[in-house]
Design goal:
- This protein is mainly alpha-helical.
- The chain has a domain of 104 residues.
- 59% of the residues lie in helices and 1% in strands.
- A two-stranded antiparallel sheet has the order 1-2.
Protein backbone atom coordinates (compact mmCIF):
# COMPACT_ATOMS: atom_id res chain seq x y z
CA UNK A 1 0.00 0.00 0.00
CA UNK A 2 1.49 3.29 -1.06
CA UNK A 3 0.97 5.97 1.54
CA UNK A 4 2.12 9.40 2.62
CA UNK A 5 0.98 11.95 5.12
CA UNK A 6 -1.91 14.20 4.15
CA UNK A 7 -1.60 17.90 4.88
CA UNK A 8 -4.66 19.32 3.13
CA UNK A 9 -8.32 19.17 4.06
CA UNK A 10 -10.65 16.83 2.20
CA UNK A 11 -12.68 18.19 -0.67
CA UNK A 12 -16.36 17.42 -1.13
CA UNK A 13 -17.20 14.18 -2.87
CA UNK A 14 -18.48 16.09 -5.91
CA UNK A 15 -15.19 17.89 -6.54
CA UNK A 16 -12.66 15.29 -5.43
CA UNK A 17 -9.47 15.81 -7.40
CA UNK A 18 -6.89 14.05 -5.27
CA UNK A 19 -5.02 11.01 -6.51
CA UNK A 20 -5.70 9.21 -3.23
CA UNK A 21 -9.14 8.01 -2.15
CA UNK A 22 -9.06 8.55 1.59
CA UNK A 23 -7.05 9.57 4.62
CA UNK A 24 -6.63 6.78 7.14
CA UNK A 25 -7.43 7.29 10.81
CA UNK A 26 -3.69 6.88 11.33
CA UNK A 27 -3.05 9.85 9.02
CA UNK A 28 -1.79 8.03 5.93
CA UNK A 29 -3.27 8.59 2.50
CA UNK A 30 -4.85 5.58 0.82
CA UNK A 31 -4.64 4.74 -2.88
CA UNK A 32 -6.59 2.19 -4.89
CA UNK A 33 -4.78 -0.47 -6.86
CA UNK A 34 -5.37 -0.68 -10.61
CA UNK A 35 -8.49 -2.78 -11.32
CA UNK A 36 -8.35 -5.95 -13.40
CA UNK A 37 -9.25 -5.87 -17.07
CA UNK A 38 -12.34 -7.99 -16.38
CA UNK A 39 -13.54 -5.57 -13.71
CA UNK A 40 -13.01 -2.58 -16.00
CA UNK A 41 -15.09 -4.27 -18.71
CA UNK A 42 -17.87 -5.00 -16.24
CA UNK A 43 -17.77 -1.39 -15.06
CA UNK A 44 -17.93 -0.12 -18.64
CA UNK A 45 -21.07 -2.19 -19.22
CA UNK A 46 -22.74 -0.72 -16.12
CA UNK A 47 -21.68 2.78 -17.13
CA UNK A 48 -23.07 2.32 -20.62
CA UNK A 49 -26.39 1.06 -19.28
CA UNK A 50 -26.62 4.05 -16.96
CA UNK A 51 -25.79 6.55 -19.70
CA UNK A 52 -28.46 5.04 -21.95
CA UNK A 53 -31.10 5.39 -19.24
CA UNK A 54 -29.89 7.66 -16.42
CA UNK A 55 -33.37 7.87 -14.95
CA UNK A 56 -33.41 4.17 -14.15
CA UNK A 57 -32.69 3.67 -10.46
CA UNK A 58 -31.28 0.17 -10.90
CA UNK A 59 -28.87 1.37 -13.59
CA UNK A 60 -27.70 4.16 -11.30
CA UNK A 61 -27.16 1.84 -8.32
CA UNK A 62 -25.17 -0.68 -10.35
CA UNK A 63 -23.06 2.02 -11.95
CA UNK A 64 -22.20 3.29 -8.48
CA UNK A 65 -21.49 -0.16 -7.11
CA UNK A 66 -19.10 -1.12 -9.89
CA UNK A 67 -17.42 2.27 -9.74
CA UNK A 68 -16.63 1.44 -6.11
CA UNK A 69 -15.51 -2.10 -6.98
CA UNK A 70 -13.10 -0.48 -9.43
CA UNK A 71 -11.59 1.43 -6.52
CA UNK A 72 -13.00 4.88 -7.28
CA UNK A 73 -14.89 5.30 -4.04
CA UNK A 74 -15.13 9.07 -4.30
CA UNK A 75 -16.75 8.84 -7.72
CA UNK A 76 -19.16 6.23 -6.38
CA UNK A 77 -20.15 8.59 -3.57
CA UNK A 78 -20.73 11.35 -6.13
CA UNK A 79 -22.91 9.01 -8.22
CA UNK A 80 -25.07 8.16 -5.21
CA UNK A 81 -25.27 11.82 -4.24
CA UNK A 82 -26.50 12.71 -7.71
CA UNK A 83 -28.91 9.81 -7.51
CA UNK A 84 -30.38 11.14 -4.28
CA UNK A 85 -31.18 14.36 -6.10
CA UNK A 86 -33.20 12.31 -8.60
CA UNK A 87 -34.60 9.87 -6.03
CA UNK A 88 -34.89 11.65 -2.68
CA UNK A 89 -35.32 9.39 0.34
CA UNK A 90 -34.23 6.27 -1.55
CA UNK A 91 -32.96 3.94 1.16
CA UNK A 92 -30.82 1.86 -1.18
CA UNK A 93 -28.84 4.89 -2.33
CA UNK A 94 -28.30 5.93 1.27
CA UNK A 95 -27.23 2.38 2.14
CA UNK A 96 -24.60 2.26 -0.61
CA UNK A 97 -23.35 5.79 -0.01
CA UNK A 98 -23.14 5.06 3.71
CA UNK A 99 -21.06 1.98 2.97
CA UNK A 100 -18.61 4.01 0.91
CA UNK A 101 -18.40 6.74 3.51
CA UNK A 102 -17.15 3.97 5.81
CA UNK A 103 -14.58 3.01 3.18
CA UNK A 104 -13.21 6.56 3.01
CA UNK A 105 -13.21 6.89 6.83
CA UNK A 106 -16.02 9.45 7.08
CA UNK A 107 -17.91 7.65 9.81
CA UNK A 108 -20.20 10.51 10.88
CA UNK A 109 -21.52 10.83 7.33
CA UNK A 110 -21.98 7.07 7.14
CA UNK A 111 -24.03 7.09 10.34
CA UNK A 112 -26.17 9.95 9.04
CA UNK A 113 -26.95 8.15 5.77
CA UNK A 114 -27.52 4.73 7.27
CA UNK A 115 -29.63 6.05 10.15
CA UNK A 116 -31.87 7.80 7.65
CA UNK A 117 -32.07 4.63 5.57
CA UNK A 118 -33.07 2.67 8.68
CA UNK A 119 -35.92 5.10 9.30
CA UNK A 120 -37.09 4.89 5.69
CA UNK A 121 -37.37 1.09 5.67
CA UNK A 122 -39.62 0.88 8.70
CA UNK A 123 -42.80 -0.89 7.73
CA UNK A 124 -41.50 -1.86 4.29
CA UNK A 125 -40.92 -5.32 2.83
CA UNK A 126 -37.45 -6.75 3.28
CA UNK A 127 -35.99 -8.16 0.07
CA UNK A 128 -32.83 -10.02 -0.86
CA UNK A 129 -30.07 -7.79 -2.16
CA UNK A 130 -28.34 -9.06 -5.26
CA UNK A 131 -24.58 -9.49 -4.90
CA UNK A 132 -22.35 -7.31 -7.01
CA UNK A 133 -19.62 -9.91 -6.79
CA UNK A 134 -21.53 -13.23 -6.62
CA UNK A 135 -20.22 -15.98 -4.36
CA UNK A 136 -19.20 -19.41 -5.65
CA UNK A 137 -22.77 -20.70 -5.44
CA UNK A 138 -24.24 -17.51 -6.95
CA UNK A 139 -26.71 -17.31 -4.07
CA UNK A 140 -27.34 -13.88 -2.48
CA UNK A 141 -26.95 -14.15 1.29
CA UNK A 142 -27.98 -10.70 2.54
CA UNK A 143 -31.11 -8.57 2.53
CA UNK A 144 -31.69 -4.88 1.86
CA UNK A 145 -32.76 -4.21 5.46
CA UNK A 146 -29.99 -6.38 6.86
CA UNK A 147 -27.31 -4.54 4.92
CA UNK A 148 -28.53 -1.19 6.20
CA UNK A 149 -28.40 -2.30 9.84
CA UNK A 150 -25.12 -4.16 9.33
CA UNK A 151 -23.30 -1.16 7.92
CA UNK A 152 -24.91 1.12 10.51
CA UNK A 153 -23.61 -1.16 13.24
CA UNK A 154 -20.17 -1.11 11.71
CA UNK A 155 -20.15 2.69 11.37
CA UNK A 156 -21.11 3.10 15.04
CA UNK A 157 -18.47 0.54 16.04
CA UNK A 158 -15.75 2.41 14.17
CA UNK A 159 -16.98 5.67 15.67
CA UNK A 160 -16.63 4.18 19.18
CA UNK A 161 -20.35 4.14 19.98
CA UNK A 162 -20.63 0.54 21.11
CA UNK A 163 -24.17 0.65 22.57
CA UNK A 164 -25.63 1.99 19.32
CA UNK A 165 -23.53 -0.44 17.33
CA UNK A 166 -24.86 -3.33 19.39
CA UNK A 167 -28.47 -2.30 18.79
CA UNK A 168 -27.90 -2.03 15.04
CA UNK A 169 -26.32 -5.47 14.82
CA UNK A 170 -29.17 -6.95 16.88
CA UNK A 171 -31.63 -5.48 14.38
CA UNK A 172 -29.54 -6.90 11.55
CA UNK A 173 -29.66 -10.33 13.18
CA UNK A 174 -33.46 -10.12 13.34
CA UNK A 175 -33.78 -9.50 9.58
CA UNK A 176 -32.86 -13.04 8.53
CA UNK A 177 -32.11 -16.44 10.04
CA UNK A 178 -29.90 -17.38 7.08
CA UNK A 179 -26.61 -18.84 8.38
CA UNK A 180 -24.48 -16.16 6.71
CA UNK A 181 -26.45 -13.42 8.46
CA UNK A 182 -26.40 -15.26 11.77
CA UNK A 183 -22.62 -15.72 11.87
CA UNK A 184 -21.75 -12.20 10.69
CA UNK A 185 -24.04 -10.49 13.20
CA UNK A 186 -23.14 -12.87 16.03
CA UNK A 187 -19.44 -12.15 15.46
CA UNK A 188 -19.90 -8.41 16.00
CA UNK A 189 -22.42 -8.78 18.82
CA UNK A 190 -20.09 -11.16 20.66
CA UNK A 191 -17.11 -8.83 20.29
CA UNK A 192 -19.07 -5.77 21.41
CA UNK A 193 -20.45 -7.48 24.51
CA UNK A 194 -16.95 -8.58 25.46
CA UNK A 195 -15.56 -5.09 24.90
CA UNK A 196 -18.26 -3.85 27.25
CA UNK A 197 -17.25 -6.47 29.82
CA UNK A 198 -20.37 -8.59 29.29
CA UNK A 199 -18.86 -12.01 28.63
CA UNK A 200 -21.96 -13.97 29.66
CA UNK A 201 -24.15 -11.92 27.31
CA UNK A 202 -21.69 -12.50 24.48
CA UNK A 203 -21.56 -16.24 25.17
CA UNK A 204 -25.36 -16.36 25.10
CA UNK A 205 -25.37 -15.32 21.44
CA UNK A 206 -23.14 -18.25 20.55
CA UNK A 207 -25.94 -20.72 21.33
CA UNK A 208 -27.05 -20.68 17.68
CA UNK A 209 -23.56 -21.45 16.36
CA UNK A 210 -22.63 -25.05 15.55
CA UNK A 211 -20.28 -26.97 13.30
CA UNK A 212 -22.94 -27.93 10.74
CA UNK A 213 -24.08 -24.52 9.50
CA UNK A 214 -24.35 -24.04 5.75
CA UNK A 215 -22.40 -20.79 5.53
CA UNK A 216 -21.84 -19.80 1.91
CA UNK A 217 -19.96 -16.52 2.01
CA UNK A 218 -19.14 -15.30 5.51
CA UNK A 219 -16.71 -18.09 6.33
CA UNK A 220 -14.31 -15.81 8.21
CA UNK A 221 -17.04 -14.77 10.63
CA UNK A 222 -18.16 -18.39 10.93
CA UNK A 223 -14.64 -19.51 11.85
CA UNK A 224 -14.41 -16.67 14.34
CA UNK A 225 -17.67 -17.71 16.00
CA UNK A 226 -16.52 -21.34 16.19
CA UNK A 227 -13.31 -20.09 17.82
CA UNK A 228 -15.24 -17.99 20.35
CA UNK A 229 -17.32 -21.06 21.23
CA UNK A 230 -14.24 -23.25 21.66
CA UNK A 231 -15.01 -25.42 18.64
CA UNK A 232 -11.97 -24.19 16.71
CA UNK A 233 -8.46 -23.74 18.12
CA UNK A 234 -6.26 -20.68 17.78
CA UNK A 235 -3.82 -22.83 15.82
CA UNK A 236 -6.58 -23.73 13.36
CA UNK A 237 -7.38 -20.04 12.96
CA UNK A 238 -3.78 -19.33 11.97
CA UNK A 239 -3.95 -22.01 9.30
CA UNK A 240 -6.58 -19.97 7.46
CA UNK A 241 -4.37 -16.86 7.32
CA UNK A 242 -2.01 -17.91 4.52
CA UNK A 243 -3.23 -15.20 2.15
CA UNK A 244 -3.72 -11.50 2.86
CA UNK A 245 -7.34 -11.24 1.77
CA UNK A 246 -10.22 -9.13 3.04
CA UNK A 247 -11.75 -12.28 4.53
CA UNK A 248 -8.55 -13.09 6.40
CA UNK A 249 -8.28 -9.52 7.64
CA UNK A 250 -11.68 -10.03 9.25
CA UNK A 251 -10.49 -13.26 10.85
CA UNK A 252 -7.22 -11.69 12.00
CA UNK A 253 -9.13 -8.79 13.50
CA UNK A 254 -11.43 -11.19 15.34
CA UNK A 255 -8.41 -12.92 16.86
CA UNK A 256 -6.72 -9.64 17.74
CA UNK A 257 -9.86 -8.34 19.38
CA UNK A 258 -10.20 -11.57 21.35
CA UNK A 259 -6.64 -11.10 22.61
CA UNK A 260 -7.45 -7.53 23.64
CA UNK A 261 -10.52 -8.21 25.74
CA UNK A 262 -8.94 -11.32 27.26
CA UNK A 263 -6.12 -9.27 28.75
CA UNK A 264 -3.40 -9.41 26.10
CA UNK A 265 -3.35 -5.91 24.61
CA UNK A 266 0.22 -6.20 23.31
CA UNK A 267 -0.64 -9.35 21.35
CA UNK A 268 -3.71 -7.57 20.01
CA UNK A 269 -1.63 -4.61 18.88
CA UNK A 270 0.81 -6.93 17.11
CA UNK A 271 -2.04 -8.53 15.19
CA UNK A 272 -3.61 -5.18 14.31
CA UNK A 273 -0.23 -3.90 13.12
CA UNK A 274 0.19 -7.00 10.98
CA UNK A 275 -3.20 -6.36 9.37
CA UNK A 276 -2.12 -2.83 8.49
CA UNK A 277 0.98 -4.17 6.74
CA UNK A 278 -1.35 -5.52 4.07
CA UNK A 279 -2.98 -3.58 1.26
CA UNK A 280 -6.68 -4.41 1.61
CA UNK A 281 -7.43 -1.06 3.25
CA UNK A 282 -11.07 -1.05 2.12
CA UNK A 283 -11.89 -4.20 4.10
CA UNK A 284 -13.76 -3.92 7.39
CA UNK A 285 -11.16 -5.88 9.33
CA UNK A 286 -8.45 -3.51 8.15
CA UNK A 287 -10.47 -0.40 9.01
CA UNK A 288 -11.30 -1.71 12.48
CA UNK A 289 -7.65 -2.55 13.14
CA UNK A 290 -6.66 0.90 11.92
CA UNK A 291 -9.07 2.56 14.35
CA UNK A 292 -7.81 0.42 17.23
CA UNK A 293 -4.20 1.33 16.49
CA UNK A 294 -4.94 5.05 16.14
CA UNK A 295 -7.44 5.29 19.00
CA UNK A 296 -6.94 2.43 21.46
CA UNK A 297 -10.23 1.49 23.03
CA UNK A 298 -10.63 2.06 26.76
CA UNK A 299 -13.36 0.14 28.59
CA UNK A 300 -15.96 2.30 30.26
Amino acid sequence: MASCKNTTSDESQNSWSKSYQAVAVTGDTLYSAAPSEALVKAWEAKKEAYEKDPNNLENLIWYGRFTAYKGDYRKAIAIYTQGLEQFPNESRLLRHRGHRYITVREFDKAIEDLSKAAELIKGTENKMEEDGMPNAQNIPVSTQHGNIYYHLGLAYYLNRNLPQSLEAFKKCLSTSNAPDNVVSCTHWIYMIHNRLGRKAAGDNYLRNIDENMNVIENTAYYKACLFYKGLLSEEAIHQFEAEATASNSALQYALGNWQWYNGYPQKAKEIFTDILSGDDWASFGYIAAEVDIAKPYVSR
